[in-house]
Amino acid sequence: MFPIRSRVVGLCMAVLPGLLLGGCSTRSLILRHVGDELAQQAHAQNGEDDLVLAREASAFYLKLSESILRPQPGHLALAESVASGFTQYAYAFVSFEADRREASDARAAQALRERAARLYARAWRHARTALEADQPGFMAALSQTDPARWPPLRPETVGLAYWGAAAWAGQISLSKDHPDTVADLPLSIRLAERAYACAPGHGDGALASLMGTLEMARPGGSTARALAYFDEAIRLGQDHQAGALVAKAEGWAQTTGDKTVFALLLGEALSVSARHPTLPNEAARLRAQWLLAQIDDLF
């Protein structure tokens, strides 16, 4: 969900004739080169702090990236970029808007949640396809009851698994009326656990924060373990990542009912986002502000 620099668009315009006229091998090379460039640009735009600009640019970026990914589904970097883009778009722009509109227009909020679920499913589909391309039989192995048969992850696929697990869990959380989808929650948690076992510090605490959220969602999950994950995420973020603070605050609200600590965590998230204006921190800032505005209804 990041703006596209003009050199990416220029590159695409330059290679389109080759895509139309070149042979199969040339076309594959060009597609891979464009895919590499798009994936690099997605990472490079993390410093963007204008959420409106990001939203306006993201639809073009996602559609372009998806079209380049489709003929080469095993392009790990591009698949990770597309999965992350759809997941972040669903979370920051669609699902959050549903939360904000719930009180005034429940029907519109439900329509937005259904759209967010579809976007999460789209993100998970791209991540799953790439994981299968990298390791055939990955999902079948993940579904085994014997932990010894669960597939390990290579370091190169940890990010893909992280975004896949986040998207899968996001879809599940919005699919309460679809028991078959909800039944996949243990598998989404297992996928996140595979990523965590390989690289617990991934994403400067983003993966640890996801583990905390999933622990809260797990039937019979441990509140203490979830809060420990959130604390680890905050430590790994080194006072640069506001998202873990917001996640811990929401988990805290669900389990302890401590209004004071809830407000303190959100206040700290606002301070971090002000000191370090990035796109993820801007999304966290807006959610923190909204949660603080709802505090009397939450407690």
Q: Can you offer a commentary on this structure?
A:
With 299 residues, the chain is mainly α. It is 76% helix and 0% strand. The protein has 15 helices and no strands. The chain has helices spanning 6-21, 24-44, 51-69, 76-101, 106-134, 138-142, 158-173, 179-182, 185-198, 206-217, 223-237, 243-255, 259-275, 279-293, 295-298. Residues 1-27 have low confidence and may be disordered.
Report low-confidence residues grouped into runs of 5 or more.
1-27
Work out the helix count.
15
In whole angstroms, the N-to-C terminal distance is 33 Å
Which H/E pattern describes the elements?
HHHHHHHHHHHHHHH
Radius of gyration: 19 Å
State the shape. globular
- Structural class, by secondary structure, is mainly alpha
Main beta-sheet strand count, sense and barrel state: none
Which percent bin holds the helix content?
Answer: over 70%
Tally of extended strands? 0
| % residues in beta strands | under 5%
Overall pLDDT metric: 86
